[in-house]
Amino acid sequence: MDNALQTMINNMPEKTGKSLEQWIDILANETFEKHSEAVKYLKTEHGVTHGFANTIVTLAKEKNEPQVDLVLTQYQGKESLKPMYDKLITLVENFGADIVITPKKGSVSLIRKRQFALIKPATKTRIDLGLKLKGADVQGKLENSGPFGTMCTHRIQLHCLSDIDNDVIQWLTLAYEQSV
Predict the structure, then answer these.
(1) Which residues of the chain have pLDDT under 70?
(2) What pLDDT, in 10s, does the model give residues 92-123?
(3) Per-residue three-class SS string for 117-143
(4) Of 75, 104, 65, 90, nearest in space to 169 by CA
(5) What is the rounded radius of gyration, in angstroms, for the C-alpha atoms of the chain?
(6) What residue stretches are annotated with the DUF5655 domain (predicted)?
(7) SS3 call for 100
């Protein structure tokens, strides 16, 4: 969860008179077909500002939806790539306890103080390892960021477990070290 959202949740009791959990309970007793209807209800019936109402409805919906394993979903039909993902995660977890691994719909972000890497099953035969490396020149397996745009400065394409060699580990370690 990002800092802005956590701050909003922390400020909710003071700003709205109720905690997030209390608002979720209130919404659980109502039936809405659309997100906008629930937002309008909180605004008109409870005097909640739009920003808080939208956040409450979004988080209530997430809480009530069945949890999906985003990583498993990413690798459906790409199962041969999963061992590479697992190896990368194991390597990163050994860097330190200050890493947050954040699965998203199409990728997994690796964050220390800032995001330093991104693991994305790019095709059925390739994982793209995006890295934030300040001032690193393109060399060897290290390419320009490719499809990551400004999210990462560089990319390494991985096709098999043996591609995760000392060179890749050194680049990943450097990205981690730079993310303080």
Answers:
(1) 1-2, 64-68
(2) 999 988 888 888 889 999 999 889 999 999 99
(3) EEEEEEECCEEEEEECCCCCCCECCEE
(4) 90
(5) 20
(6) 74-179
(7) strand
